[in-house]
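Quick log. Single chain, no ligands specified.
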Amino acid sequence: MKGIFWALCSVVLVSGAQLLLRSAMVSLPPVAEPLSLLRALFHFATGSGMLLLGLSGYIASMGCWYLALHRMALSQAYALLSLSYILVWIAAIVLPGWSERFSWAGLAGVGLIIAGVLVIFLPAAKKVK
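-> predicted structure:
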């Protein structure tokens, strides 16, 4: 059970990091303008703070992932990691200002992800002798 806790912590952290990094990339100048980007990063513009928080979220997520892999099978942990796709998809639709639209195809994809995770976590059938 401890492994699942750490894997889910990793999922939440990596999902938050994805959202923060997307916000940072919208706020920061394009990479094609390297001087503007460096100036924004070193003067702690709005996007640079979100960039640092997003990268910190990734680092914290890696720590949780490390703890999860010590306590559970890789196949199960990796299946749980796919839940971050669902969290980011929902957050991008629900959060104001993101302009993401709901689609039935996206919902079908979320359903397939959930079904796949459930199949992996279903208890194995016992052999009858």
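The radius of gyration is 18 Å.
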